[in-house]
Amino acid sequence: MEGIELTSLPQIIRMAMRLNPAVYAAVQTSPMGIWVALIVVGLAGVSESLGQSVVLFVNKVRPRRFILALGISTVSQMIGFALWAVIVWLISVYVFGASQSFVAITAAVGLAYAPQLLAFFELTPFLGNTFAVILSLWSMVAIVVAVYVGTDLDVWQAILTSMLGWISIQIWRRSLGRPIYAIGNWMQRRAAGNPLAWTMQDVPQLRHAHDITVNWEKWRENISRSRIAEFGQQTLNELAQRLDLPNRRDDEAPA
After folding, report:
1. What dihedral do alpha carbons 14, 16, 20, 21 form, nearest 10°?
2. Of 19, 114, 173, 216, which is the most exposed, with the fewest CB atoms less than 10 Å away?
3. Domain count, the chain
4. In a domain, 109, yes or no
5. Cβ contact 34:10 at 8 Å
6. 149: Cβ contacts below 8 Å, ≥ 6 apart
7. CA distances from 219 to 99, 213, 226 (A)
8. Secondary structure of 184-233 in HEC code, one letter for each residue
9. Other C-beta atoms within 10 Å of 191: how many?
10. Does residue 168 sit within a domain?
11. 60-98: pLDDT as tens digits
12. 124 and 49 in one domain?
């Protein structure tokens, strides 16, 4: 596999999104590889938080608390990444006998979060749910590529490691990790300040809610009418000033 240099972060992200194996190999050997991976994970966490920010919008959270809540959500994503990396490393080393270091595998797994940089598109009305499914599948394939390249395992071993890692995280969240996630949710509610009438479980419903979506044709028609009326009123006012006539609004005109 041809080696590459990690020179430009945007280029690295594009290659990771395209599932280029060379960049996943390079991130393990570069001295800056782990930092590049952590930056990608952090940006992915911010993007995913923005994609889920519809919950904060509809709960009318103040801007300062809004930013704080997004920060807490991003930190939660970083913790999830660390857990994922640990599980992948344990399975690959102690089950399949891989010899790569924890830092090298962590760097490859972190770079696999690159597709999550597009997670903010999940906020898109009507298309958000479909895009979320596509993004999840894309991210899972990226994880498989990262594990395959980062551990020198066979393809089926990389797939099995990724699946076991995902299953382990789901089990952990619903058992020993439940109190930790409960604390994280409590911190986010405290940061938001307002009682959250809508939660993350309501995001799919909110994307289709009529009250927070806009009918484009109707909106454009209303804007056009408003501009025409405003232009007409402005023209009448200018004409009245030139003729030294008193300024009179349309609703004051005689019947």
Report:
1. 150
2. 216
3. 2
4. yes
5. no
6. 1, 21, 24, 25, 108
7. 60, 11, 11
8. HHHHHHHHHCCCCCCCHHHHHHHHCCHHHCCCHHHHHHHHHHHHHHHHHH
9. 19
10. yes
11. 556 666 677 677 777 777 888 888 899 999 999 998 888
12. yes
167 and 139 both lie in a single domain: yes
The pair of three-digit structure tokens given for residue 193, joined into one six-digit string = 């300040």
Residue 3 lies in a domain: no
Note down the domain range covering 228: 214-252
Angle value at C-alpha 156, between 153 and 160, nearest 5 degrees: 95
Location of structure tokens 């997004």 = 70
Say how far apart CA 100 and CA 54 lie, in whole Å.
41
Whether the pTM exceeds 0.85: the reply is no
How buried is residue 133: exposed, middle or buried, by Cβ count under 10 Å (0-12/13-18/19+)?
A: exposed
Residue carrying structure tokens 């030294």: 244
- Whether residues 73 and 25 share a domain: the answer is yes
Mean pLDDT of the chain: 72
